[in-house]
Amino acid sequence: MKWTELGPEVRNELLTVGAVFMNKHVMDDFRSMLRPEMFLDTNLGFVFRAMTVVYDRGLIPDLQTVDTELFRLDEPLARRLGGLAFMKEGLYLIRDVENAMEYAKEVRRFYLLRCLHGVFEGLMLRSALTDGDVDSLIGEAEQGLMGVRTEFAGADCGVSVKEAGEASLQFYQELRLEGLSPMGYPTGLPELDDLMGGIRKRELILMAGRPGFGKTAMALNMAMACAQSGVPTLFVSMEMSDRELVNRLFPKVGDVSADGLRIYGPTLKELDEMERVNREVFTNLPLTLDYSESLSMEQLRGKVLRANKLGLCDVLFVDYLGMMRMEQQKGETLDTAIGRVAYGLKGLATKADIPVVCLVQMNRKVEGRAPSAPPMLSDLKDSGNQEAAADIVLFVHRPDKLLASAPKRVGEMHLAKCRNGATGVVEFRFNVSFSRIEV
Question: Which of 61, 78, 256, 271 satisfies CB 3.0 to 4.6 Å to 71 for a cystine?
Answer without folding.
Answer: 78
